[in-house]
Amino acid sequence: MVNTETLSINELQVLEQDLKTILKDNFSEILSRVNYSGQIVELLSVLGLENLLSYRKSMYNKQGKIVVIGQSETKINKLLAVAKELGFDKNQFEFCLDYNEAKTFPYRKMQYSPKYSAVLVGAMPHSVKDKGDFSSMITAMEKQDGYPPVIRMGSNELKITKTGFYNCLKKLLE
Known about the structure:
The protein is α/β, with parallel strands linked by helices. Helices cover 39% and strands 10% of the residues. It has helices at 9-36, 40-46, 76-85, 101-104, 137-143, 162-173; strands at 65-69, 93-96, 116-121, 150-152. Strands 2-1-3-4 form a 4-stranded parallel sheet, with helices on both faces. α3 (76-85) links the parallel β1 (65-69) and β2 (93-96). The N and C termini lie far apart (41 Å).
């Protein structure tokens, strides 16, 4: 059943002021929440602003940061050479390639942040901060709302290699 209750002029003015304050302070987070909940098109439609999505060609945000997390013997400069070959900008990447540093990486900063477009993961500790009740942080990011897409690197096991990195970046571009 649809709620058809309307507000009085005074109630509407109070709501307008409250929304202006909240949206001004939390706009990016709210927009990301609506997007990750799958309701962005519906919201824009209700607001009569669906034309704002006319530019949308791809699910992948080409301007967002790509975070690469996990143990790697492959050096960052080798990975960046692969990225450059595919047309990516080196400043688009954030690397955490040390197994122990992955334990304290601030994963939550990616949740509901439009700054991040993907997380490429290799071997990393199961016991990390921010994983909550999940078996691993990878699972936590995959199952919780608000995280960018998570792509596991490696075929039989999680492993960051030049070939795996290349394949993941190609997948992002498709």
